[in-house]
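INFO  loader      accepted 1 record
INFO  loader      residues=217
INFO  predictor   begin
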Amino acid sequence: MELAEYLPFWDKLTMPQQERLRHASEYRRVKGGTILHRGSMDCLGLLLIASGQLRAYVLSEEGREVTLYRLFERDICLFSASCVMPDVQFEIIIETEKDSEMWIIPSCLFKELMGESIAVSNYANLLISSRFSEVMWLMEQIMWKSFDRRLAAFLLEECRLEDTNVLKITHEKIANHLGTAREVVTRMLRYFQNEGMVRLTRGTVEIADEKALEALR
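INFO  predictor   done
INFO  writer      dumping tokens
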């Protein structure tokens, strides 16, 4: 796997800039469940995902999590290099949901490239705009969409990601993704089960009626 294949602006860089990137970037394999970045004071560097799955989330004062977005192969995480954006202060936590492989581009180098290359600067701005759009969409979902519809949509999306109708996921984990209490998730899943949409066993949610969930979402 070559770094050049994963960076959209690679061909816009000069050869010396490309060599600096190759030399400074670190390729790392990380186990699932690892916290990579915690808050605005942690400036790990730009994450370029080669494989696996990451989650970016925020934590309330009460300790409740809500997933902002996920990162997959070829995605780039800019908020892990928060020090290159001094005017953007987000207390975002980034963890690996699955065993993952990634390049880590040092924050200082990426900041230099943003100053040297319009292509890199434009891409960074586009990336920030895209992530903000995702967060705004999430806020709209939380504010205006009923929880049963949000839960149905989440379950269907998980099935698509995992390519199975049998999800090995706890009620606590679902609550963390959706920014609610575990008890709320448990009550709604039991309602779904009574309606024949899911089957519940310990640590598992099986989709029994996908069409009903689709109609609900």
